[in-house]
């Protein structure tokens, strides 16, 4: 009888322990430029603030921050690396150890770049959350990492998304001539604004003719290439079954093709707490405390 009770008790305890969905917490800071900064320790010596970048799968450190660091040594140079508006050479450091939260990774390459998000020392990509469910919780300023789908998904809205070449995409509906146009957007936490429209979309729907230009912005990519964009206002934009009014958007007026993808930036992303598993094309959203914030001015 005692053996039976012990066996039953052990079985219950085992289910409780091994049936848990282990959760790991990583703090972050949302900057006024809508960038998510994660504190990262490199080689047990250097502490840096890296911007979570949903359009990347590796770590970069900007040149200015690299010069102040003690633990990184350059081991190689990559030539003619493609950036947003051109090409550049990129230095690389091999076999680094990085730690954020309680997670530690070894043999990690680090690339030296020229620019990153404001207030950051570089970028960290989604590769470090591979095979996990990642929650970006703007209400608590924390990343939560789960081994399996959390039960709270029931309270979130499932979005139409896909993951390709280390990049997360989502379907949304900009309204052109008062009609919704189903459009795919790249989720880009490195872009501070709300929407960046591709050259093809701007040309097909004649944005220069249909929308008033309210200004211009200077934008630069990681390699330091500077380009000018037009600024306008999109009257209606539908995302996650919610309609946003008067959304700022940028696009280019150039004979040279610059912007190949539609981009949804941090100004819209922060308005939702997100749970994602890119490899499974899973993305869920729920309104955050920033949902009704005023739009960011580029």
TrEMBL record:
Q: What is this protein called?
A: Aspartyl protease
Q: Which InterPro entries match?
A: Peptidase_aspartic_dom_sf (IPR021109)
Question: Which organism was this protein described from?
Answer: Empedobacter falsenii
């Amino acid at each position: 009888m005692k053996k039976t009770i012990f066996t039953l008790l052990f079985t219950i305890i085992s289910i409780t322990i091994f049936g848990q969905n282990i959760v790991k917490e990583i703090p972050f800071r949302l900057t006024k430029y809508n960038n998510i900064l994660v504190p990262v320790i490199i080689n047990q010596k250097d502490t840096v603030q890296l911007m979570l970048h949903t359009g990347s799968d590796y770590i970069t450190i900007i040149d200015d921050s690299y010069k102040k660091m003690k633990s990184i040594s350059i081991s190689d140079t990559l030539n003619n690396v493609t950036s947003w508006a051109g090409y550049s050479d990129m230095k690389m450091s091999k076999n680094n150890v990085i730690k954020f939260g309680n997670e530690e990774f070894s043999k990690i390459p680090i690339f030296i770049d020229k620019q990153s998000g404001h207030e950051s020392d570089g970028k960290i990509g989604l590769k470090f959350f591979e095979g996990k469910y990642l929650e970006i919780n703007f209400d608590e300023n924390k990343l939560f990492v789960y081994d399996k789908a959390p039960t709270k998904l029931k309270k979130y809205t499932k979005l139409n998304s896909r993951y390709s070449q280390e990049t997360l995409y989502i379907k949304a509906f900009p309204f052109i001539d008062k009609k919704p146009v189903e459009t795919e957007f790249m989720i880009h936490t490195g872009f501070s604004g709300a929407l960046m429209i591709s050259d093809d979309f701007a040309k097909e729907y004649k944005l220069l003719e249909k929308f008033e230009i309210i200004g211009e912005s200077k934008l630069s990519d990681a390699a330091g290439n500077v380009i000018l964009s037009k600024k306008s206002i999109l009257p209606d934009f539908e995302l996650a079954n919610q309609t946003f009014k008067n959304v700022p958007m940028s696009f280019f007026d150039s004979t040279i093709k610059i912007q190949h993808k539609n981009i949804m930036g941090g100004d819209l992303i922060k308005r939702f707490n997100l749970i994602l598993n890119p490899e499974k094309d899973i993305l869920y959203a729920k309104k955050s405390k920033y949902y009704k914030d005023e739009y960011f001015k580029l």
